[in-house]
TrEMBL record:
Keywords: DNA-binding, Transcription, Transcription regulation. Pfam families: HTH_IclR, IclR_C. This is IclR family transcriptional regulator. PANTHER family: HELIX-TURN-HELIX TRANSCRIPTIONAL REGULATOR, ICLR FAMILY, HTH-TYPE TRANSCRIPTIONAL REGULATOR RV1719. SUPFAM superfamilies: GAF domain-like, Winged helix' DNA-binding domain. It comes from Pseudomonas quercus. Residues 73-254 form the IclR-ED domain. Residues 10-72 form the HTH iclR-type domain. SMART domains: HTH_ICLR.
């Protein structure tokens, strides 16, 4: 590669960081043309870089007017950098407290691109196993956490994110998109969601949001329990989960 080519690539990288820094400071989604104006860069350059960043998941589309904002891939990159940071350690501490107080399986769940995944898990004190495999992706509409993890997105952004086939449930029925979005809005407002598992016939799933300093749900803490036990101890499980999610958010924002 020639010296001039290296310089051009370096300038492009520098502009890409300008875009990310500006979005972070703005705190709201912006159109590429607005970004170009604010950072003093040619529109053509910004549009090209935004397209590349969208493709890599560093940015994500927001709204219906071409706005973009910081993407979830940045979160995963941050996790890699902070592998020994307090978030993982504190999350494990929260999961341990949930299991100790409820005896049920506890999980830390995240979005992974267009899917849902279990990032951490601590199994409950039971003779039989109720859990999901860590790192295994699942359709977002099949999960309690999915109703919370998408709360910061517009209706159209939610529909753009989710593969249409993911609204088809394990029993073959289709979950109406409008119903799902209504559940997202209700869950986000309440700061909690639970339902009988869609993936099986004997568990009930509870989820509470772990929010960042901007109020965006970046992860969830979950309890997976037998339906009868979930019904009997519903209020206790709900409060234990919410308390731990709130504490985890506060500890990792300090």
């Amino acid at each position: 590669m020639s010296e001039e080519a290296i310089k051009r690539r370096a300038r492009g990288l520098d502009r890409a960081f300008d875009i990310l820094d500006h979005l972070k400071l703005a705190g709201v989604p912006l159109r590429p043309s607005e970004i170009a104006l604010n950072i003093g860069s040619p529109k053509s350059t910004v549009y090209e870089l935004v397209a590349l960043l969208l493709e890599r998941g560093i940015l994500q589309p927001m709204g219906q007017e071409g706005q973009v904002y910081l993407g979830r891939q940045l979160y995963f990159l941050g996790q890699a950098h902070l592998r020994h940071f307090d978030f993982t350690r504190e999350a494990e501490r929260a999961l341990g407290d949930i299991v100790e107080r409820t005896r049920e399986t506890a999980q830390l769940c995240l979005l992974n691109g267009r899917k849902y995944t279990v990032a951490l898990m601590k199994e409950g004190a039971r003779h039989f196993r109720i859990s999901s495999d860590i790192g295994e992706d699942a359709p977002i509409p099949w999960t309690a956490s999915g109703r919370l993890l998408l709360g910061h997105l517009s209706d159209q952004a939610i529909l753009d994110l989710i593969d249409p086939q993911d609204f088809v449930l394990p029993d073959g029925q289709r979950l109406p998109e409008g119903n799902f979005i209504a559940q997202v809005r209700a869950a986000s407002a309440e700061g909690f969601f639970s339902f009988d598992s869609i993936a099986d016939t004997f568990t009930h799933c509870f989820a509470a949001p772990v929010r960042d300093s901007q109020g965006t749900c970046v992860a969830t803490l979950c309890i997976v329990a037998p339906r009868e036990d979930a019904k009997t101890h519903y209020e206790v499980y709900r409060q234990v989960l919410i308390d731990n999610a709130d504490q985890l958010a506060r500890r990792t924002q300090q």
